[in-house]
Structures are given as structure tokens and as C-alpha cells.
Amino acid sequence: MQLPGVIRAGGASIPADASEVHYFTGNGSAQVTFVSNQMPDYLYRAGILPDGNPLFDEKYGTKGVANDEIELPDGLCGSYLRGPVWIYDSTSATGSGVTVMVERSPTADDSFRFPTRAVVTYNLP
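The structure assignment produced for this chain is given below.
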């Protein structure tokens, strides 16, 4: 199956600089993993984090596993996530549920790793 020219995950196209893109679909949901330097832009465009809110506002997300290597969900291939991670549970711009797990910087509490790997899980329309 060939991917479309623009991959949408959770209601917004993934960042233009996304690399290492892998996806898995099944049982009415999809999971996409990618690496990007434009993660904040994606989170705001997808409506996962309201414009102007801090990246790590506990109203929209929580700390996740802090292990050095975190396995991707079953069926999804690609490199491990590196902890610590931040998990956003939200309703996307399209109105469906979406979860985004993102690598957080291990040294700076207010930023992501550079570049950042993310796993986006959402319901298919």
C-alpha cells in the first residue's frame, strides 16, 4: 500500500520535516510514528494542545515512562522511544480521540528531545 502525499494523523498533517515514518492500522484505529523537529507546531495544528498553552501543561498531558528505551505499540515498527516521554490524551481537530506520546528532553523540563520521536494513536474516520 502506498502512502498518500500528505499523511494526516490525529486531525493534522504530520510535520513536513518528518522522517522515519511508520504506520499500522487495525480494528478502526491507526498508529503513526515519526521523528520531527517541529513537534510543537504539529500539536497546536492538530488541536491536541490549545494555542498559547505551555507544552507540558498537566491539563492536557501527563508524564509517562522514563525508561531509556520504550517499545512501540504492537504492530508498529521503527526505533524505540527514548524516555522520558510525555503523553497527551485529547480530542483532535476532527473530533476523534487521539493520544500522542512524545520524547521529552532528559535535561530540560520545558522542551522535547531534538529531534523528537512521537507515536500518534487515533481512531479512523
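Interim note for the steering committee: Residues 21 and 34 are 4 Å apart (CA to CA). Strands lie at 8-9, 12-13, 19-26, 29-36, 61-63, 85-91, 97-103, 116-123.
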